[in-house]
Design a protein that fits this description.
about 35% helix; 2 strands
Length: about 120
């Protein structure tokens, strides 16, 4: 029998997968919701990552904005966070567009996350 017990940075131990996911989301929020992320730098427009014209060219331009960000890429924290939340059918997240996220199955849903950064 495998163990699913995890200790978080806050020194709490849980074996509940939903609580583990919620704790990981809070950790990712603390990391990603800072000006270290290119999309969070002062003076940037968040709408640049959500093209109004949902065309391939518009999404390519939005994905270019993620290049060079320390949090982008399929193994990056942005995509990890997107995988723990409900599927998002719009915008670029960590360099991925909605079609790629749908194709890779990035996005799920679970109870227990209130959508707020810790």
């Amino acid at each position: 029998m495998s163990s699913h017990i995890v200790a978080s940075r806050r020194h709490t131990v849980t074996s509940n997968p939903e609580r583990q996911a919620a704790a990981r989301l809070r950790e990712l929020d603390e990391l990603l919701l800072t000006s270290k992320a290119l999309c969070r730098k002062p003076g940037t427009d968040p709408d640049d990552w959500f093209p109004i014209a949902e065309t391939a060219d518009a999404y390519e331009e939005a994905k270019k904005r993620c290049s060079g960000c320390p949090f982008s890429g399929l193994a990056g924290p942005c995509v990890e966070r997107a995988g723990l939340l409900p599927y998002d059918p719009v915008g670029v997240i960590g360099g991925t567009d909605p079609a790629l996220r749908r194709q890779l199955g990035i996005g799920t849903y679970f109870e227990g996350y209130d959508g707020m950064a810790a």
